[in-house]
Amino acid sequence: MNEIIESLYRRKSVRAYETREIPEEMKNLILESAMQAPSAGCQQLYTILDITNQELKEKLAESCDHQPFIAKAPMVLVFCADCKKWYDAYLETGCEPRTPGVGDLMLAVTDTVIAAQNAVVAAESLGIGSCYIGDIMENCEEHRRLLQLPDYVFPAAMLVLGWPTLQQKQRKKPTRCEQKYIVHENAYHSMDGKELREMFAHKYKNHTYEEWCSAFCKRKYNSDFSKEMSRSVEKYLDSYKKL
């Protein structure tokens, strides 16, 4: 196993950081690495917001499901799927472009999260921990205001980065499902109850499958924040339904 693959196996979400800054040259290297990611037609359908204002960090820590560690992170990046800049470029040259649609948004989101993962891999190689914050997709109206997001710009992911504490370094990485349940050959395979129980067996060791799954559904899928995320994404989508 080579060094890059080892880092992929080793990497886990880091939510507690040492109180030291990330040197500017390392920060720039992480950002440049993000920009080396593959993108559709080399369009780079994303814009990265580098959040350096401490007051803004604190507001995002509250709006993103009340997570104080966000405000303590030395580096906070919001990766935005950006269909606006190319649309504006077409208008600038006198083209008659259609308004961006949901397909354009999905393509931009793909570009965006690939770039974000490049940043994660680059940071890990430097010993810098990271954590994805999906809650940036929530609270559409508030995040549009805080980040001054216009139509056709969607905050697809937020990354917080910093030097992991010793406790975070020693914390065990959560176990992944076995490959046979994740990789389907040639076509999708709907799993039956037995297969589902086997796939998630490592998650409910001290409970029944029903107990674990019910609790997880309540805590995650049926939670208020999950419902808010769906509401907010629908709101963002309004801009893309004007074809």
Placed side by side, the strands forming the largest sheet appear as 1-2-4-3
Helix proportion of residues, in percent?
40-55%
Q: For the terminal residues, how far apart are their CA atoms?
A: 49 Å
> Helix tally?
12
pLDDT averaged residue by residue: 97
Would you write up a description of this structure?
- The chain is α+β, with helices and mostly antiparallel strands.
- The chain is 49% helix and 12% strand.
- The protein contains twelve helices and four strands.
- Strands 1-2-4-3 form a four-stranded antiparallel beta sheet.
- Helix 2 packs across helix 6.
- The longest helix has 24 residues.
- The chain is globular, with a radius of gyration of 20 Å.
- The termini are far apart.
- The mean pLDDT is 97.
How would the blueprint of this fold be written?
Elements (H helix, E strand, L loop, with lengths): L2 H8 L13 H12 L10 E6 L2 H10 L5 H4 L2 E8 L1 H9 L9 H24 L3 E5 L6 H8 L5 E10 L3 H5 L8 H4 L10 H7 L9 H13 L2 H14 L6
Antiparallel strand pairs: 1-2, 2-4, 3-4
Keywords, please?
243 residues, alpha+beta, 4 strands, 49% helix, single chain, 4-stranded antiparallel sheet, 12 helices
A few lines on this structure:
The chain is an alpha+beta fold and about 240 residues long.
